[in-house]
């Protein structure tokens, strides 16, 4: 097994997070910035945008999310939702992943032949970046899980942190110290997933 595949195996959804990381905020930010810079985008468009939330800002995000979900969640199910959100708030921080849609629109105008593809390529770039950052954090023994409360929280997040209007929220990566390991991962049969021709 290569170091790369070992890194991929180490990247798991860690839901039991704490706030006891040995890495400083500056070290985490430096790592994430490097990974984002090296993650691929169509036409080298560099559409990815990341907001770092630590401390009170991190906790505020999950409070905002709770407020947004309360009227949308059946009363009997809300305690479970609250517990889940509190488990996120217990972590060290959250990375908000955005895509800059002004760049996407400019590329659509500049390369009309591919106009329909640029939003798709933007989504692919975002997914690649999220996975790369998540894997890089795992290599540093930082637990994380990826959430998608957009578009429910988009407006409140934009207002709270003065997010540029062209930035579209795509995901929230919660991270922190690993308080409990992930369970065993199950894999589907190769025969259902791969085809080969010679």
From TrEMBL:
One cellular-component annotation, GO: cytoplasm
Single GO MF descriptor: oxidoreductase activity
Major subcellular location class: cytoplasm
Subcellular location as annotated: Cytoplasm
Domain Nitroreductase, chain residue ranges per copy: 8-176
Stored Pfam families: Nitroreductase
Single biological process term from Gene Ontology: cellular response to oxidative stress
Organism: Enterococcus plantarum
Entry protein name: Nitroreductase
Keywords: Cytoplasm, Oxidoreductase
InterPro entries attached to this UniProt entry: Frm2/Hbn1, Nitroreductase, Nitroreductase-like
């Amino acid at each position: 097994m290569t170091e790369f595949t070992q890194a991929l195996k180490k990247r798991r959804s860690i839901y039991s997070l704490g706030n006891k990381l040995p890495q400083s905020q500056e070290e985490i930010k430096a790592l994430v910035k490097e990974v984002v810079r090296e993650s691929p985008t169509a036409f080298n468009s560099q559409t990815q945008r990341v907001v770092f939330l630590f401390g009170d800002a991190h906790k505020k995000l999950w409070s905002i999310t709770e407020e947004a979900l309360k009227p949308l969640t059946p009363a009997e199910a809300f305690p479970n939702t609250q517990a889940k959100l509190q488990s996120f708030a217990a972590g060290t921080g959250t990375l908000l992943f955005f895509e800059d849609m002004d760049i996407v629109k400019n590329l659509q105008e500049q390369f009309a032949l591919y106009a329909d593809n640029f939003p798709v390529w933007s989504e692919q770039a975002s997914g690649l970046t999220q996975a790369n950052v998540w894997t890089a954090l795992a290599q540093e023994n930082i637990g994380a899980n990826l959430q998608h409360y957009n578009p429910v929280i988009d407006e409140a997040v934009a207002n709270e942190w003065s997010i540029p209007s062209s930035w579209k929220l795509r995901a929230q990566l919660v991270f922190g110290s690993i308080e409990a390991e992930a369970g065993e991962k199950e894999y589907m049969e190769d025969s259902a997933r791969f085809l080969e021709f010679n």
